[in-house]
Design a protein that fits this description.
It comes from Loxodonta africana. Residues 1-18 form the signal peptide. This is Nyctalopin. The protein is 18% helix and 14% strand. The chain is an alpha/beta fold. It has a domain at 414-420 and 431-476. A hairpin with a 2-residue loop joins strand 1 (31-35) and strand 2. Helix 3 (401-416) packs antiparallel against helix 6 (446-475). The N and C termini lie far apart (127 Å). Mean pLDDT is 83; it is low at 1-13 and 390-454.
């Protein structure tokens, strides 16, 4: 009679067999191991220039990242019915033969990211992958995606195709009813057309950030009623249609930061009752229409920082209520009575900070929370005073007119003063007497009459000069 085996030994045999089978057929330069998730084959950074000829039949995961693979031929991986995950990131793939993935009928995740020479995919590349749920095509420098490329993937849930060269939202997305997450950031997409997202009824997250989007057409998101996160930040949007986000009643995050929006209109967010995070930062917004945020009663954070706002009216939030965080820094705020409500709200909630005043002059440089608004006897708010803070350029102060006139008068007196005798001049320096005009004029001799005439002429000319100078100084 054969020896009886203990239950522990019996239960341990299948695992032991699986581990042995996984390691026995492990390709050279690869490392194989078995775990609860199945047989894992790691061939990353192995210097491979071609796909190994054989893999363990039980392989559930194969990692071929960071090698030198350039080409995938027909049935490149053979038949691996247990394979769920295949990663080929950071290789030099330039061509994938249609049918390269035949034999991988159970594959759920395929990563082809960072193959910058790929650039083109045949419409039948993924024809055999009916169970694929996650596809990563990031940084492959793809210019387009064939219309039928993704139609062969009815189970697809997540698509990562960022850092590519698309100029429009790939038409291959249309009609993918099970798609839930799409990443198309950091590309060259210029518009979201009304038909771009047609039929994406299960889409929950869409990232179009850091593209060149200038236009979002009306009704572009009408089929995306399940959308929860929409990222349109860091594009070139200068405006939006009135019903741009109509029907997005489940949206929780909307990021419009880093665009060229000049105003906020009340119709944009009318249907977004579930919105929690709204980013409008880093735009050129100078005006927020009354009632713009009136339906956003569940908002947790509103980012309006780094815009051109001078005032924000409480009417923008009426008739709803707002209890979340306001980010309002880096705006040229005019802290007059129109912002008294906000100062009071800041004191009661404490959810706003770094809101520096630019004007009026008496409060410029203060935080709004530090501004003390005055009130009249009727209880009405009184605006802080505007001060003249115009700076003058440094330089010598203009000389007062009286000082200039006195200098000319002194000069005139010195010119009209009598000269000292010749003998005194020989022994001393010339001295100008400080006497009046009448006492200095001689009263005898014909020769002195000529002196009188000369002196009177000089006096007349000097007086005219003084008058012109004084007149010019008064004009200045």
């Amino acid at each position: 009679m054969p020896p009886a085996h203990s239950p522990a030994m019996v239960l341990g045999l299948p695992g032991a067999w699986a581990t042995e089978a996984c390691v026995r057929t492990c390709p050279t330069a690869c490392v194989c191991s078995s775990s609860e998730r199945g047989c894992s084959v790691r061939c990353d950074r192995a210097g491979l220039l071609r796909v190994p000829a054989e893999f363990p039949c039980e392989a559930a995961s194969i990692d071929l990242d960071r090698n030198g693979l350039r080409f995938l031929g027909e049935r490149a991986f053979g038949t691996l019915p247990s394979l769920r995950r295949l990663s080929l990131r950071h290789n030099n793939l330039s061509f994938i033969t249609p049918g390269a993935f035949k034999g991988l009928s159970g594959l759920a995740e395929l990563r082809l990211a960072h193959n910058g020479d790929l650039r083109y995919l045949h419409a039948r590349t993924f024809a055999a992958l009916g169970r694929l749920r996650r596809l990563d095509l990031a940084s492959c420098r793809l210019f387009s995606v064939p219309e039928r490329l993704l139609a062969e993937l009815p189970a697809l849930r997540e698509l990562a195709a960022f850092d590519n060269l698309f100029r429009r939202v790939p038409g291959a997305l249309r009609g993918l009813a099970n798609l839930t997450h799409v990443h198309l950031e950091r590309g060259r997409i210029e518009a979201v057309a009304s038909s771009s997202l047609q039929g994406l009824r299960c889409l929950r997250s869409l990232s179009l950030q850091a593209n060149h989007v200038r236009t979002v057409q009306a009704g572009a998101f009408r089929d995306c009623s399940a959308l929860e996160h929409l990222l349109l930040n860091d594009n070139l949007l200068a405006g939006l249609p009135a019903d741009a986000f109509r029907g997005l009643c489940r949206l929780r995050t909307l990021n419009l930061g880093g665009n060229a929006l000049g105003r906020v209109e009340r119709t944009w967010f009318a249907d977004l009752a579930e919105l929690e995070l709204l980013y409008l930062d880093r735009n050129s917004i100078a005006f927020v229409e009354e009632g713009s945020f009136q339906n956003l009663s569940g908002l947790l954070a509103l980012h309006l920082n780094s815009n051109r706002l001078t005032v924000l009216a409480w009417a923008a939030f009426q008739p709803g209520f707002f209890l979340g965080h306001l980010f309002l820094f880096r705006n040229p705020w005019r802290c007059d009575c129109r912002l008294e409500w906000l100062r009071d709200w800041m004191e009661s909630s404490g959810h706003v900070a770094d809101m520096l005043c630019t004007s009026p002059g008496s409060v410029a440089g203060l935080d709004l929370s530090e501004v003390a608004f005055g009130h009249s006897s009727d209880g009405l708010c009184v605006d802080p005073k505007e001060l003249n803070l115009t700076a003058t350029s440094p330089g010598p102060s203009p000389e007062p007119a009286a000082t200039t006139v006195s200098r000319f008068s002194s000069l005139l007196s010195k010119l009209l003063a009598p000269r000292a005798p010749v003998e005194e001049v020989a022994n001393t320096t010339e001295v100008l007497a400080n006497t009046s005009l009448s006492s200095s004029l001689p009263s005898h001799g014909v020769g002195c009459w000529g002196c009188k005439t000369t002196i009177l002429l000089i006096s007349y000319l000097l007086c005219n000069v003084v008058q012109h100078v004084v007149f010019g100084l008064h004009m200045d």
